[in-house]
Each structure stands twice: as C-alpha cells, then as structure tokens.
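QA checklist item 7 of 12: single-chain prediction sanity check.
[x] sequence parsed
[x] length recorded as 77
[x] structure emitted
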Amino acid sequence: MNKADYEFLTLMHELVEWYLAQKRGIKEKNITKFDVSHSDLEEPGNSRNVPCHKEHMASMTVEILLAKELKVGMKEY
C-alpha cells in the first residue's frame, strides 16, 4: 500500500474482525472456505452469507471512524 494510514486502517479492520470472530466462536477455516468458494465477490465480508458478516460490518464501522480521524477519504483509500 505504501501509505502508513492505509496500512493502519487495514490492520485495524482485520484485527477487530479477527478478534470478534474468535470471541464469538467463528472458525477461521469456515471463513476461508467461504472466501475461496466465493472468489467472484469483490468483498466477501459484505455478503450476508459469510460466517463473519456481523463482525466484518463492525470492523468497517471502526475503520470508517478511524479514517475520519486520520482525514483519509474512503474513496481514495
């Protein structure tokens, strides 16, 4: 990415999503299986059928709030 803010935002998104999924007993192998079988989707986490949809959406909320604080436009990011 070569932009520290973008890397930070991506890291925070993934960390929050991972932690929530772990906390709620969602297995990484089930998420990966969904992602692999839906490679046609641009963002599998947005699908309501992914095992971690709720966790993904919560992560997006955190990511958007942090982007605002960093003055990073979501369209450019």
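[x] summary fact logged: DSSP finds three helices and no strands in the chain.
[ ] second reviewer sign-off
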